[in-house]
Amino acid sequence: MICGETEQVEMHHVRSIKALRDKKSLDFFTKQIALINRKQVPLCEEHHHKLHTGRFTDRERAMFAQGCQSYIKAGRKQRKLTERIEEGGRR
């Protein structure tokens, strides 16, 4: 989701999305996961290690945030398309 790597992909996960939404002081990465409403996100081995050691660069943070926003927008488009299809079937 950050660099586009397709080899050596690992899943980073959190325990509970609901718990994330209730907390006010979350780190950047966890806030992004909560925004996309997912417990897991794919990361290459290097970025997964950087996440756990707190070594993300500002550029990597921006790239991840951009990827999250793209994911959110794609989901909205898919929901609208599904709604249109369902409405057409009811007529």
Main pleated sheet: 2 strands, antiparallel
Indicate the radius of gyration in whole angstroms: 16 Å
Low-pLDDT ranges: none
Secondary-structure element order, as H and E?
A: EHHEHH
Compute the number of helices.
4
Q: In which order are the strands of the major sheet placed?
A: 1-2
Overall mean pLDDT = 79
In total, the number of strands is 2
Shape: globular
Q: Which percent band covers the strand fraction?
A: 5-15%
Q: Report the helical percentage.
A: 55-70%
Structural class designation: mainly alpha
In total, the number of domains comes to 1
Instruction: Quote the distance from N terminus to C terminus.
Output: 40 Å
User: How would you classify the quaternary structure?
Assistant: single chain
Q: What this model shows, in words?
A:
With 91 residues, the protein is mostly helical. It has one domain (9-90). 62% of the residues lie in helices and 11% in strands. It is built from 4 helices and 2 strands, in the order E-H-H-E-H-H. It has a two-stranded antiparallel sheet. Helix 2 (28-35) packs parallel to helix 4 (58-90). The longest helix is centred in the C-terminal third of the chain and has 33 residues, at 58-90. It is globular, with a radius of gyration of 16 Å. The chain starts with 8 loop residues before the first strand and ends with a helix.
